[in-house]
Amino acid sequence: MTTEEVEEDVATAPESETATATADEEELVDSEARAIAEAMQSADESYVPSPSLLSAYDSAPLLAQVDGPDLTIFNSKPNVYQAKAVPVHLRGKLDIPIHVSAGGSVVEYEIHTDLYDIAFGVTAEREEGITNVKEKSRVDSHLEPVTGKFLVGSVPCALVFSFDNEYSWFREKKVTYKITVTPPKVENVVTGRRLRAKKALEVVKKDHDELDERFETAAQKRSELEDAILRLERELAEKKKSMDVVAKEEKWLEKKLAVREEQITMLSQRLKNGWADEKSEI
Fold first, then answer.
1. Using an 8 Å Cβ cutoff, are 187 and 74 in contact?
2. Which of 119, 145, 207, 215 could form a disulfide with 112 if both were Cys (CB 3.0 to 4.6 A apart)?
């Protein structure tokens, strides 16, 4: 091999290695993007409107959840939340709430503490309840950073990153954290809203049919009750007429009884004591 060939090999080898590394990185990024898209699709295909949305008298909240972010103002740039050496007092806690409104957002976090460990956990708070994203436990974040990555499916939700130092009676902890929320790609938003709309339509149609059946039953029952009320009102009117007749008869009988009682008394006295005009004749 000539000197020129050796020099050429030496010169070109790093470029080949760089190209391979770049291809591997691109493949990894593509693989991750596919995984995120598949996870979003799975979440959107299992979408079910919450009871409060279905019980609302306004269509807007349900449509807003199905539509997701407004694409005319949608910003797909990552949002970064970070702070350094934040004190968590002994027997104290620190909660970092982050609101996520775009389904399919990817959340990455890295936390570490100075000198000592701390209890760390992540929860997702939604209208339906609270989900543990990372169960709270003590972590050796003073030895190496604690990292994690997860996909946010159902929105809106509040992610709460909790740093708990309640178990420590003597030491204050200092926490450094970096949380990155990367919104989904526009094409994923478009696909997701269509899947959610399809699932929501199924639920709404089913609920409509059930409500319609209940409506028909309620309308029939109302009609039956109205007819029953009319019958009772007619019966009541007849009873009132009968009561008026009976009341008149009662008053007449009361007067007649008084006369008869007076007559009985006076006739009995006459038969017992005689008549006053007869004594003067005897």
1. no
2. 145
Q: Measure the CA–CA gap between 3 and 253, rounded to whole angstroms.
A: 146
Per-residue pLDDT tens for 199-237?
999 999 999 999 999 999 999 999 999 999 999 999 999
In one-letter notation, the amino acid at residue 50 is S
Helix (H) or strand (E) holding 79: strand 79-88
In 3D, which of 202, 204, 188, 183 has the Cα closest to residue 43? 188
Write out the DSSP string of 119-132.
EEEEEEEETTEEEE
The predicted pLDDT at position 29 comes to 59
If you ran DSSP here, which 8-state letter would residue 143 be given?
Answer: T
Please, which residues bridge with residue 111 across strands?
A: 146, 177
* Structure-token match 């809106």, residue found: 156
User: How many other C-beta atoms can be found within 10 angstroms of the C-beta atom of residue 150?
Assistant: 16
CA 272 to chain centre: 95
How crowded is residue 122: how many other Cβ atoms within 10 Å of its Cβ? 21
> What's the pLDDT score for residue 43?
74
Among all chains, which residue has been given the structure tokens 């089913």?
206
End-to-end CA distance of the chain: 184
Q: Are 181 and 98 in contact (CB under 8 A)?
A: yes
- Helix crossing, 186-273 with 60-67: angle to 10°? 160
Contact predicate 200/100, CB 8 Å: no
Token pair of 48 as six digits: 């079910």
